């Protein structure tokens, strides 16, 4: 058997309780009215009984009664009855009432024939008995009319309340239907669906607010999970690419070492010193590559840095000084913006490596006569350092990927100068180290106008 809807259950329960209440009130009111009418009849019986006794005492057994529903009879010892009313009435033609089983009490008795009922009282009167009875037909009619009125009125009340209750419940539970439809839509994949707002003072309104809050948290959790899965896939892709690139980069110096070793073995008369030098150079390149890979691995593991106050102006000045020594033919300048102390909290060795990599990148990837400017200053509560050149610049696609590991702007796996090629990790190391220090690094470039790398680090607050 299918479960009934909640609104039907509530309506049925309400109507059932109301019916019980109406029945109780109806029974009580009918009982009270019937009891009141019986008391009035008993009072009438007692009054007529008193008058009849007075008549008997005066030897005048005939009464003048205006009431049409009262009989007064003398019951002889032989069981015959004699009416004490002077005029014959319609009530006298009805089947007479039965005799009460007890003397001196007002009792309800049935007629000797038929279904009539009487309220009767029997009292001794000499050798005979005096019977006074009132026909209860009028009492029954009044009681029956009251029952009919209560049944009709109760039915009308129940019908009206049923209609009003169903309409009210349907309107009140409309929000529950909205919640049901929203849940079905969410189950179908629409996580952005929400329940319309209702009055927060009502139970349904508070339920809607709680439901919407829960949906927002679920949507946030699903979005976070989706973003996490995407990040994991991107990380996995980068890891695969990183492993493939690292294998390729390590294979090159290893191939050189193997080739020189085999050449020296196959040619004993060859210049061993020259062969060993070439092997040593290849091993050194491989060692630098391994060192860069280890550095990136440590940064990826979020190992804590040895932080201390670092003067970025001093690092910029040292980088400019070293650049002028390495490339004396270039115009390398230092530009200081403002006069504030440019102190950051960080690892001086790693920050020096950041500035050195940016300077080396500008010197290696631009023509020999290209000027380079190192600019440091303060913007808000962040220290910035820029390395700008007037070289050939980068395309938007190259600028977007310039910080990727093993990426080279010319899209080649090896440099144009053969063995004197880098690993493609210099700018990736810059990006990782700056991020580890809580900073940001970016690049702005236009083809033919040069390139500017900008590093921003939080200012060390005393």
TrEMBL record:
Domain of life: Bacteria
CDD domains: HAMP, HATPase, HisKA
Major location category of this protein: membrane
GO molecular function: calcium ion binding; phosphorelay sensor kinase activity
Top-level class of the enzyme under EC nomenclature: transferase
Keywords from the named record: Kinase, Membrane, Phosphoprotein, Transferase, Transmembrane, Transmembrane helix, Two-component regulatory system
Cofactor(s) of this protein: a divalent metal cation
Locations listed in the record: Cell membrane
Protein's UniProt name: histidine kinase
